[in-house]
Design goal:
Length: about 450
């Protein structure tokens, strides 16, 4: 079958393309911005790519078109498909009908931590000797690909709450048929498609309705919004995970060399029995939740907890999840995907517990649609309390702005931010760049500029 994918260079749609190719289909696709690394990965798989939305991409006419959720009515390619009645579907619906119906699906849902937790769970099953299928919305550290059909019964998927397509406004995860569901946390986000928190809860509850009675839902009992959503009705066995309160799964945080409980080491308890100790490179309370959720889900799939813990001890963070991208001249730079106040706060808190009194400099681009709308502007300033200095990159066209102070510097010029960062950079600094986009290449520009500063001849 010839499958043509509109919006193929997105992480999710690129994963769909890889899986479809692996299943033996002829796959082509197009996007507005066809560029590496996704374009390179797809071309290596033998997938032909078209730049833009012109009609020439539909010759020869494909058997079905998969339309990504970034495309809307009025798009030239969408209008071409509709007017000529070429069969079309969404990525989640195609995945459901062609792969998930006959698999043991382990789905990872929540406002935060989906990519990291999905990567953890996939690595645990892989390290245990299985070859699970998976689709991860990022580039995993321990695995070669971000998506594969796999050969075993298990399929692990990042269960995103964003809408499915212009013709299906339900959340993507409605299509995934989970046997094992991780419900990790829930906050208001995606203000461009959800009116309020209750609207998001309804979508998550629709997902809960799809989990069979013989499945398992792992829920964060420390999160009131998760508890509220489950109270709307649940027909499946649940197991609670708690770091702060009481749950079937609990942890005992252990101190690091500075005496801080930064999440880099913790005991895992199930029904109050200690089953093992995680010692890994991750930090932050949020990653403790992610790790225990992955261990608990793997146990439901038949993986011994000790085996799961052993795998997590060798887990490598996915790209752009507190990924250390530079470490020279006693200065460390991290690339992080955080773009919600809670994610920013927990990430910086974990780093503070790890580095002690060393200076932390946060560099933030409020790029998500929710951020651009100013939904989180009242809580944003509190999110960087653990940082010593903050650089906020905001365009002049943005409708809201925060006042500068002794900690906060605001600019609309990435080059200027780099110059200011280089001027103040000193040994033992930890610089965290936070954005869900490319941030105008600031990562490479900053690393090069710091090298230039410290490599100057005496």
């Amino acid at each position: 079958m010839h499958i043509h994918i509109l919006g193929i260079c997105g992480t999710f749609m690129g994963g769909i393309a890889a899986i479809a190719k692996e299943l033996g289909h002829q796959v082509t696709g197009s996007d507005q911005n066809v560029y590496p690394p996704m374009s390179t990965q797809l071309e290596k798989l033998g997938i032909s790519l078209t730049q833009g939305w012109g009609p020439e991409q539909f010759e020869p006419v494909p058997d079905v078109v998969i339309i990504g959720n970034a495309l809307s009515r009025g798009n030239q390619a969408v209008e071409y498909v509709l007017s000529r009645k070429i069969p079309y579907t969404s990525g989640p619906e195609w995945l459901k009908n062609n792969l998930l119906q006959n698999r043991w699906v382990l789905a990872v849902a929540g406002t935060h931590g989906k990519t990291t937790t999905t990567s953890m769970l996939t690595w645990i099953l892989s390290d245990a000797g299985f070859e699970p299928g998976y689709l991860i919305g990022g580039v995993p550290g321990n695995l070669e690909l971000s998506a594969t059909a796999g050969v075993d019964p298990f399929f692990i998927i990042e269960a995103d709450e964003y809408d499915t397509a212009f013709f299906d406004k339900r959340s993507k995860f409605i299509h995934y048929l989970p046997n094992t569901l991780i419900f990790n946390n829930l906050e208001f986000d995606h203000a461009d498609i959800f009116d309020d928190l209750d609207a998001i809860k309804r979508q998550f509850h629709h997902m809960i309705r799809t989990v069979p009675a013989n499945g398992l839902i792992l829920n964060n009992s420390d999160d009131a919004n998760v508890t509220d959503t489950l109270s709307l009705g649940c027909w499946t066995e649940t197991q609670s995970v708690a770091v702060l309160g009481n749950g079937a799964w609990q942890v005992n945080l252990l101190p690091n060399t500075l005496g801080n409980k930064d999440g880099s080491s913790f005991e895992v308890l199930f029904n109050k029995q200690v089953l093992g100790t995680v010692n890994w490179d991750m930090t932050g309370q949020h990653n403790v939740y992610n790790g225990v959720m992955a261990i608990a889900a793997a146990r439901h799939a038949g993986i011994d907890v000790k085996v799961a813990i052993q795998a997590l001890n060798t887990f490598k963070t996915p790209k752009r999840r507190m990924e250390q991208i530079y470490s020279q001249h006693d200065i460390t730079i991290y690339d992080d995907f955080a773009h919600h106040p809670t994610a920013i706060a927990t990430t910086l808190a974990g780093l503070r517990n790890k580095v002690g009194s060393n200076r932390i400099i946060a560099v933030l681009e409020p790029r998500s649609n929710t951020m651009k709308m100013g939904i989180h502007k009242d809580t944003l300033a509190n999110s960087w309390q653990e940082a010593d200095k903050v650089f906020l990159c905001q365009s002049k066209e943005q409708t809201w702005h925060l006042p500068e102070d002794n900690k906060l510097i605001i600019s609309d010029d990435v080059e200027q931010i780099v110059r200011q960062l280089v001027d103040i950079s000193a040994p033992n600094d930890h610089i965290v760049i936070m954005s869900n986009g490319g941030f105008d290449g600031i990562h490479v520009k900053l690393a090069d500029a710091i090298n230039g500063k410290f490599n100057k001849p005496a």
